[in-house]
């Protein structure tokens, strides 16, 4: 395709849509799995896999357009794509479900114990499908009440954007590529469990400094320092593969008590 900072991303989007729909529209119920390998002119590579359902080929087309736009219009370095390989598979089934129910095996646990989350996902005109997710609680987790989060893939990405934005912060060309590789490779067919814990740290640009002593945090957050520093909350997480694309989220209060 033509190399142009404005036109190339939109042309690439049209190419993906035209190729995928060459033989006609998709069935009313459908799932689209795809794998991208994007080789840049500078020799670097971005590779990611995606899954969508019920939205034609909008997801793979939009992701490539957004990626190309950022690569060719970022403040660090122009990195136009040299070769793009897309493998795409379309199947006549719906994978869309919503988080129907979630509960804990025990709402009060000791540090070091494992809590089991019983979750159910439900699709249109189908029975709820049960899943069990186990989350080990760290031995050094302080006593207190916590909000345990059960998240579909979109809700998980929103959680990361809010809780750990430093993981997607670009400060140079390499961190821009790293951020894209992280966000584009968030699996869509997993159910996530996240537990923010009270142990805090600092993010220096996109570098995490967890579990800092209070004195060290005071020194680093001195107003005289010019490096951008922001506090962040540590969290533990786990996930299971469901083979389904879950939407929705739930929060359940979990108490950690070493004297239980």
Account of the protein in words:
A hairpin with a 2-residue loop joins strand 9 and strand 10. The longest helix has 15 residues. The mean pLDDT is 88. Strands 5, 8, 9, 10, 11 and 13 form a 6-stranded mixed β-sheet that branches. A 4-stranded mixed β-sheet has the order 7-6-4-12, covered by helices on one side. A 3-stranded antiparallel β-sheet has the order 2-1-3. The protein contains 5 helices and 13 strands. It is 23% helix and 42% strand. The radius of gyration is 21 Å and the shape is flat. By secondary structure, it is α+β, with helices and mostly antiparallel strands. Helix 1 runs antiparallel to helix 2. The N and C termini lie far apart (64 Å).
Task: Identify the notable features of this structure and list them briefly.
5 helices, 6-stranded mixed sheet, 260 residues, 23% helix, alpha+beta, 4-stranded mixed sheet, 42% strand
Task: Tally the beta strands.
Answer: 13
Individual helix count: 5
| Fraction of residues in β-strands | 35-45%
Describe the largest sheet. 6 strands, mixed
């Amino acid at each position: 395709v033509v190399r142009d900072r404005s036109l190339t991303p939109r042309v690439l989007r049209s190419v993906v849509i035209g190729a995928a729909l060459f033989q006609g529209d998709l069935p009313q119920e459908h799932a689209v799995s795809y794998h991208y390998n994007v080789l840049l002119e500078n020799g670097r590579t971005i590779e990611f896999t995606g899954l969508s359902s019920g939205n034609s080929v909008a997801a793979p087309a939009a992701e490539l357009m957004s990626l190309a736009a950022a690569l060719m219009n970022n403040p660090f370095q122009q990195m136009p794509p040299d070769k793009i390989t897309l493998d795409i598979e379309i199947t006549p089934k719906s994978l869309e479900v919503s988080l129907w129910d979630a509960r804990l095996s025990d709402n009060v646990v000791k540090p070091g114990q494992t809590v089991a989350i019983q979750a159910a996902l439900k699709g249109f005109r189908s029975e709820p499908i049960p899943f069990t997710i186990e989350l080990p609680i760290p031995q050094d987790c302080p006593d207190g009440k916590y909000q345990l989060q059960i998240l579909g893939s979109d809700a998980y990405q929103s959680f990361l954007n809010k809780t750990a934005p430093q993981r997607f912060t670009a400060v140079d060309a390499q961190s821009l590529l790293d951020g894209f590789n992280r966000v584009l490779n968030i699996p869509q067919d997993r159910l996530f469990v996240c537990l923010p814990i009270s142990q805090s740290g600092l993010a220096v640009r996109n570098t995490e400094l967890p579990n800092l002593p209070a004195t060290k945090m005071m020194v680093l957050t001195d107003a005289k320092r010019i490096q951008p520093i922001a506090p962040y909350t540590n969290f533990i997480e786990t996930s299971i593969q469901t083979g389904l694309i879950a939407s929705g989220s739930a929060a359940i209060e979990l108490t950690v008590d070493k004297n239980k």
